[in-house]
Amino acid sequence: MEHEEQSAINDRIEAMGYKIDEAISAEDYATARSLTEETIHLSAPCPGWLRGRIIRKMATIELDSGNILLSIEYLRKAIQAFPKYPDAWYQMALLNAKLENKQEALQALANAIEFGQSQALVDYRRPASKEADFAAFKSDPEFQALVDTGLPENPALNRVFEYLAMSEPMKAIKSGKKNLNEIDDLYAAYSAFEYAAEMIVRDLEEHGRYNLREYGLKSISEASEMLNEFKNELANRTGEKTETFTKFIAKRDSRKK
After folding, report:
1. Which UniProt keywords apply (predicted)?
2. Which of 70, 174, 196, 218 is the most exposed place for a label (fewest CB within 10 A)?
């Protein structure tokens, strides 16, 4: 019975969430506030992540109404309810950046980056590096260290690395091989191909043939042959060795700790 009651509350909160969003879109902030306050009260027995999402809506209402300090206060409350709430941390970073509160902004951004990857598979480094609200910090070493993805400037090689970062090894290989003539660091490219092939082989060894279709392969041995091909290509390119791929992996792994 208790489970059914909680499920009913969750359904009601979800329905009210839609109404809140409609009121915000219509700039009917009085209605939006009233509905959100009611929903916050209703969400008291709910999990922290759900309470945090509702409180986060109040932060949006206050920001859209021009009350930036009050919006920050509601973001703090949302984070108190759900400490690993990446979107709330990112918004906190943006608002503090607007107010030129550097340390608060950078700490919030660091949390958004950490929890974005661990909780939501979202990487906030790229949008943060282009966000106008962070313009005052663009040349700051602390900010640069936070948003550095370790990705290369070459667009074709960048796409390969980004696919790896998204755990899309076959897309990384196909994209790189298709645009190989545009890549200026072939040692890094083949290092990425080898790494991607190793990911595929490990996955197939763990799950058997079930994921072959996902990779467009007919057999596990085909994946092993592909891996050996890349290993041989790398061995033939030892004179071209660069640290581009090694730095990318080190940067990515440091974000996971």
Report:
1. Coiled coil
2. 218
Nearest to 91 by CA among 81, 170, 80, 78: 78
Count of Cβ atoms closer than 10 Å to residue 25 Cβ: 10
Three-class secondary structure of residue 222 per DSSP: helix
What residues have CB less than 8 Å from 180, skipping those under 6 apart? 156, 186, 189
The conformation of residue 44, written as its DSSP 8-state character, comes to: T
Label residue 154 left, alpha or beta by phi (over 0 means left) and psi (-120 to 50 means alpha). Answer: beta
Give the pLDDT score at 1: 40
Task: Classify residue 43 as exposed, middle or buried by CB count within 10 Å of its CB (0-12, 13-18, 19+).
Answer: buried
Which burial class, exposed, middle or buried, applies to 174 when counting CB atoms under 10 A from its CB (0-12, 13-18, 19+)? middle
Give the contacts of 56 (CB within 8 A, at least 6 positions apart).
74, 75, 78, 85, 87, 88, 91
The secondary element (H helix, E strand) that includes residue 53 is helix 48-64
- Please give the torsion angle defined by the CA atoms of residues 120, 84, 32 and 42, in that order, rounded to the nearest 10 degrees: 110
Residue matched to tokens 């996971």? 256
Which pLDDT score is estimated for 210? 76
- pTM more than 0.85: no
Give every residue of the chain whose pLDDT is below 70, as ranges: 1-3, 120-121, 253-257
In order of 3, 27, 93, the CA distances from 150 in angstroms are 46, 41, 22
pLDDT tens-digit series, residues 131-144 = 999 998 988 999 98
pLDDT number for residue 144 = 86
Q: How far is CA 145 from CA 104, 174, 209, in A?
A: 16, 30, 41
